[in-house]
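Tutorial, part two.
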Amino acid sequence: MRNRSDQLFLREALVDLAALPDDAWEKSIAKPLLVHFRLGGQEPARDEEDEVSAEIRAWFEDYERKLRAEARAEEAARAVLTALRVRGIAVPDAARERVLAEKNTEILERWHERAVVAASLAEVLDDLS
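Running the prediction step on this input gives:
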């Protein structure tokens, strides 16, 4: 059973972690561990733990959503590059990095649609000189 000071410590840790930038290495390491150890426990939560448990679950669900969005964007970027490769369109390193760095799936989908019928890279990427 966790005591009140453990609950306060956990709540403070969550607040501190949430304040870090999304790309902070501390966040990428601590978040999954907190979620694993808190949600993986077998003891039932007491009433005073319910709020912290709900907070951790919401945080975990948000974390999963972000991971899924990143995976969808990476998959869409690879589809753009594959379509360009199959069409025989050369992709310089700078353009490849731009495609792989794009996280907006709507933009990536538009690029993919263009890549399927394009004759050149300029026809695919917006604002390409």
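Residues 47-86 form the longest helix (40 residues). In part three we will examine how such features are distributed along the chain.
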